Amino acid sequence: MNQQRLYKVLLGPHISEKATIVADGSNQVVFRVTPDATKEEIKAAVEKLFEVNVVSVRTLVQKGKTKRTMRGVGKRNDVKKAYVRLAEGQEIDFLNFQ
Fold first, then answer.
1. H or E stretch covering 17
2. Which of 37, 71, 76, 94 could form a disulfide with 64 if both were Cys (CB 3.0 to 4.6 A apart)?
3. DSSP state, 81?
4. Does residue 84 sit in helix, strand or coil?
5. Contact 90/27 with Cβ under 8 angstroms?
6. Is residue 65 over pLDDT 90?
């Protein structure tokens, strides 16, 4: 795979209450990824950037909500998320990542 593509696949960590519960309970990390990213690309990007072993990757597309505004009806963007399960004993520390 192209090196530049691997750096563009991951958009950032997804921080939410559910993501925190999943991270504590089952050694998973949740990332926001580009809409056209594949599971193999996500796995390769996480392993290369964070130097960890990835066991599995699950993806989902969260559809954007429809919101009413003063000017009419608007829609938020769709977001693709990846749930990455790390090998036993491995973790990603976002606070001290360089």
1. helix 17-26
2. 76
3. E
4. strand
5. yes
6. yes
Question: Which sign, positive or negative, has the C-alpha torsion 35, 54, 45, 95?
Answer: positive
The pTM assigned to this predicted structure is: 0.88
Structure tokens at 26: 């089952």
- Nearby residues of 60 by Cβ (< 8 Å), 6 or more positions away: 80, 81, 83
Predicted local confidence at residue 23, as pLDDT = 86
CB 82 within 8 A of CB 37: yes
Phi/psi for 44 (5° steps) reads -65, -40
Structure tokens at 80: 């693709």
- HEC readout, 47-79: HHHHCCCEEEEEEEEECCCEEEECCEEEECCCE
Q: Residues 27-39, buried b or exposed e (16+ Cβ, 10 A)?
A: bbbbbebeeebee
Cα 46 to Cα 73: distance, rounded to the nearest angstrom? 37
